[in-house]
Structure formats: structure tokens, C-alpha cells
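Progress narrative, work stream C.
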Amino acid sequence: MKQDPAAAFGGLIDLASEALGGRALECTDDFFASMDNLVKPGRGVFLPDEYTDRGKWMDGWESRRKRVPGHDHCTLALGAPGVIRALDIDTNHFLGNHPPFASVEAARGPLETAEWVEILPQSPLRPGSQNLFTVRNPNAFTHVRLHIYPDGGVARLRVWGEVEPRWDPPTLDEETAPRVTAGEVDLAAVINGGKALACSDAFFGPMDNLLLPGRAANMGGGWETKRKRPAPGHDWILLRLGDRGSVRVLEIDTNHFKGNYPDRVAVRGIDAPLSPLTELLDPALPWETLLEERPLEGHTRHFFDEGLRTRGPFSHLRVDVFPDGGISRLRAWGHRELAP
């Protein structure tokens, strides 16, 4: 039975996520459980009979009981710089050992010269709970520091926000490099501001996975819909590009999806950067066919270039999968174009 999903902030990205490149850099103490767990997926699990040579195994960051003045903290690098809109300090499974209070600071690197700014004042935490807070600071940050008072365990830290696009020259692997020319970027990448806005279904894998960096580590790292019952109809996902641009190469990767990949795929585009989501979902909009319906193979990287019907410029893409299934990544390689 599928568990209820954790509470999240719609329209925002977890900037600290390990999948995005977020990582823990240092902490005052992680005697019982590693600081690296803070950015892992999920809310953490509990294994009743699992122990280490230091005590109970816990899926989170946990410091020892403090017997001297002071408090513990942990510094994390965000996977992508961005404006922080909300925080989730999740104490899942930490019931008699959670910190009663926490605060959060943020900075823009390099850390040697960065100035730390408090984005969450010292606030009470509930045990075994998602502790959700909104943040009101318009600046983009690259790092956060979680302070817990005085000690204890936190399962996960989610830093919900909006990515500040970097548009750095992409690092290309040996399969992609021959297909991408100088000056082209992945217009859909989350690190470039791309975002999944809506989809017909995301039962097995969230839609935001589709635009993450790198290739998925396993089947859970992609976007996957449930089996469509009854058969008529198909699934779809609506993507906002990081910037309007012309698409020259589409990459659709079914990595790890072997018996549950879509049979076929089609992609359409539209240049409507100012349109609200409700308008973009209107089937009467003049979407242009970018990629006509094509067959897919399992566990394969598909590159489409010569057969693209039109190339834009587009601000949004709509991907239709027939009838259902999973895709791990989508890339839209092309050139950014200035608004007219």
C-alpha cells in the first residue's frame, strides 16, 4: 500500500536535496547519526532492532547529549542557489531525543567571506513531525546552517525555494557530447530554472524528478504514473522551461524502466511565458508539435533531433506518454532567446 506523501510546498524545489546536489559540509557533532542523512530522500525510516556500536541506529542527524554550555549546528551547501521560501525541519521518528528548538541561517558563498543572515529565528519543534516554516527574504543563497538547541536529532531538512538559474556551460557525458553544439544548454534543467508544473498522475515517482541533474540512480528517481485502468486515455506532464528558447535536441531517458516504460511519447511546445497555469491547461491553446508520437524502448536514452517538426522558441513543453509508465529524465537542448 502506498503511503501518504509528506507535506510539501507546491511550486517550489527542495534546494538542499541530495538529488539536486545538496550536501552536509560540517557539524559540531553527529555521534549517533550522520549529518549526511539530512538531505536524503524520504522522511527517514525506523528500524526497531538496529543498533550501532554507539547506540540506536537512527535515520537522520543526531548529536550526543550535551553536558556543557552551547548548542549544536550543521552547515549545508544547497544543490542550486535560490530564494528560500519555506523550511521543513522534520523530526520524524525522533520522539524522546528531538531538539526542542531550532533556528536557521543562510549565506551566499564562498563561506570564508560570506555573511550569515538569520532566516528563521529560534522556534519550537514538535517531536516526530514535519515542522513547517515560511521564510521572508528576497535574496538568493547558496548555503544554510541549522542550529538545534541544545542537541538531539533531526531526520531531514528541506529548504523549499526557487532556483536562481546559473546557465553555466553544461558538463556533457560521452553520449550527449556529440549531439550538443557550443552554446547550447538544457532549457528544461531544474538548475537552470526549469520546473514541472502539473501532470496527470505521479503515483510512483514525483514529476520534479524528470528535470533533476544526472541520470537517475534507480527506478524511484524518475517520474512514473500508475497503470491506466481502464485502458483509454494517456498520461501527460507540463513543463516550464528555465528560459524561452529554441529546442534542437530532445533527450528522453527511460533509465531503469524496463517493464514499465511508456510505449510511445509525443512532445508539444508553446511560447506563452506570461500565461498562468490554468490557461496552459486549456486544450484549446495553440500548442505546436515538437516531436510527433514516437515509440520508446526500456532502459534507454533516446535522442531526437532530425525528426523534430518545429523548434520554437518555446516557454513551455507538454510531454504526452502513451498510455502510462515511467521516464527518468528529459532534456531540451537548445539556445536561449530574448523575449520579443
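Work stream C, second folded protein:
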Amino acid sequence: MKNDTKVIIGALVASLVIIVGAVFLLGNDKSPKRESLGAASMTIDKTLEDFGNMGGDEERTAQFSISNTSDTSLRIWNVATSCDCTFASIVIEGRETGEFNMPMHMSGSLKNWIGEVAPGKQALLKVTYRPKVMPVTGAVTRQVTFSTNDPKNETVEVSVKANVL
């Protein structure tokens, strides 16, 4: 009986250590803290692009212009799409990122990407809709969201819509 008690207590202690360790590791949020990224100000030229009628095998891309209207760096991160059929990339100073998608489908480097737009400069958000990836017909609307260090635009959402034939 004494050996059984030791085994049970040992198993409980080991389980507790594993649970506490998992909570610590998984709960350790490594995403940037907005307050440590400074406060900027931004504008975006539009938040919706209507592609109109399009075939299910077509691909269309919308462009959204993001302007840094402050005297500090505008930071952009957490770029994600609402559907596996929608992709986004950002162009800053002529350099284009890879394609952002739904968080579960992105590489770690894109999940952890933070872009900086210099004061007075612009970034270009490209949103591409590929209906053949997730075949549908009829009216659809897809979103792209991203975070910024602009306190008035902490999370920005843009949309593309189409009537897939």
C-alpha cells in the first residue's frame, strides 16, 4: 500500500509540473505590446473593393494605400485573412512580404512579421481573392485585418467582395 501511495503522489506531482509548465509556456504571449511600439497615426484610402462579377477560376487583387500621417514609425502586424481563398501582402519601400493568409495556414515568419512605415510614407496592402481555392458561387465578402500602433486604429479591417459566377 505504501508503494502505491508513492506512485500516486509521484504521478500527481509530475502531472502538476507538466500542467504548470504548459500554462507558462503556452500562455507566454510573445506578440508585440502596443504601448512598447509607440503611438503613430494612419489613414487608409478605402476599406472596401468591389470586384463585381468574376468567374470561379479567376483571380483579382485590390490595393489599399496606408499612409503614416505621424512623425513616428507606423508599425503594422497581425495581418490575417478571413478565408483560405484570400491572401494579403504588404509593400513597404518597394519590398513585398510573402502572402498572409488565415493564421493557421501561415508560416511562423509571417505570423511574427512587423512592418514599419516611416513618417510621411505609405505602405500598400494587396488583397487577392482566389475563389477556386474554396469554390463558391454567388455574393461573397472576404476580410483582411491587421493591427497598428495608431491608438485610433488599433485593428483595421478591409474587405473585398465579388459575385462569383
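The chain has one domain: 34-164. No further action is required on this item.
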